[in-house]
Amino acid sequence: MPNHMPLPALPTHDNGRPHPPPPPPPVEAHRETFAPAQPLRFYPLDLGLALGLAATVFMLFAMLVTMAANHPESMTFFKEIFPGFGLDSVTGVFLGLLWSFIAAFVIGFFTGWLYNWRVRRYMAEHVEG
């Protein structure tokens, strides 16, 4: 026969009445949440890596669908813009994935950099000076 100890009762009530909810925090405690002192900044390297990875996964999915449907002509656009890309060899598939990662990485990196540059310029002109 196992030796079970009874669990203590949790203090959820005082004299049969539930505890009232805690009061809400003052408005000043939420000011940083709704009106941050500093604007949102992107990390260009992280944005580039995220977009590059997403583009690579998308390209892999597009290649698999194209090969499963047996319509290699639907990848003609990518064959024209990505040197060495093709569905006929492993090297061509690898080059397609590599080129899609590089293109999306560059777009993501420069988008993050341009956004941060524009925010710094706006802050210098309108907020700080």
What does this molecule look like?
- The protein has four helices and two strands, in the order ββαααα.
- It is mainly alpha-helical and 129 residues long.
- The protein has a domain at 43-127.
- It has a two-stranded antiparallel sheet.
- A hairpin with a 2-residue loop joins strand 1 (13-14) and strand 2 (17-18).
- Helix 2 (44-69) runs antiparallel to helix 4.
- The longest helix has 38 residues, at 90-127.
- The termini are far apart.
- The mean pLDDT is 83.
Morphology call: flat
Oligomer: single chain
**Main sheet characteristics:** 2 strands, antiparallel
* Residues in helices, as a percent range: 55-70%
Write down the overall mean pLDDT. 83
The N- to C-terminal Cα distance equals 78 Å
Would you spell out the secondary-structure blueprint of this structure?
Elements: E1 13-14, E2 17-18, H1 27-34, H2 44-69, H3 76-81, H4 90-127
Antiparallel strand pairs: 1-2
Helix pairs in contact: 2-4
Keywords for this entry:
129 residues; mainly alpha; two-stranded antiparallel ribbon; 4 helices; 2 strands; 3% strand
Summarize the structure.
By secondary structure, the chain is mostly helical. It is 60% helix and 3% strand.
